[in-house]
UniProtKB/TrEMBL annotation:
It comes from freshwater metagenome. The chain crosses the membrane at residues 12-36. This is Unannotated protein. The keyword Membrane applies. Pfam families: DUF4307. Keywords: Membrane, Transmembrane, Transmembrane helix. The lineage of its organism: unclassified sequences, metagenomes, ecological metagenomes.
Length: 144
């Protein structure tokens, strides 16, 4: 047919269609793999307030599997970035989404508060307390 009619071209529609199908399939695979590999534990700091020089009030949300025991770590620091409060908070199994209100005892007024992280079981991958040498961390939680 090529010799008789001189047609030497590939059907462009077929190439475009195949390319669109391949790109769509790869995009679907990426979407599914990201969804399956998403962390089942997320923690979000909502708010904190330095209510008094000796304690701060902190609120954070935790989304987890309902059957998991979760440990979250919060710390407060002063203007020089020295720790003035540090607590590991254990959340027993229960609701999948939990809002935690915690009163953190501090040695001095807090300038910064951080939710260092949460993990299932004991917390291992967070920064350890960084109190100045000779300073004893305050007992937690704060109570009037």
């Amino acid at each position: 047919m090529i010799a008789r009619y001189g047609l030497d071209r590939r059907p462009i529609g077929t190439i475009i269609g195949a390319t669109i199908l391949i790109v769509g399939f790869v995009a679907a695979l990426i979407f599914v793999s990201l969804g399956l590999n998403r962390d089942t534990l997320t923690a979000t700091l909502i708010t904190w307030d330095d209510v008094a020089p000796d304690h701060v009030s902190v609120t954070f949300d935790v989304q987890r599997q309902a059957a998991d025991t979760v440990t979250c770590v919060v710390r407060a620091q002063d203007k020089s970035r020295a720790d003035v409060g540090y607590a590991a908070i254990t959340l027993e199994p229960g609701a999948a989404t939990v809002r935690v209100d915690y009163e953190l005892r501090t040695l001095a007024p807090a300038y910064v508060l951080e939710l260092l992280g949460c993990s299932v079981g004991p917390t291992a991958n967070v920064i350890q307390p960084q109190f100045p040498p000779g300073v004893v961390p305050p007992n937690q939680p704060w109570s009037p």
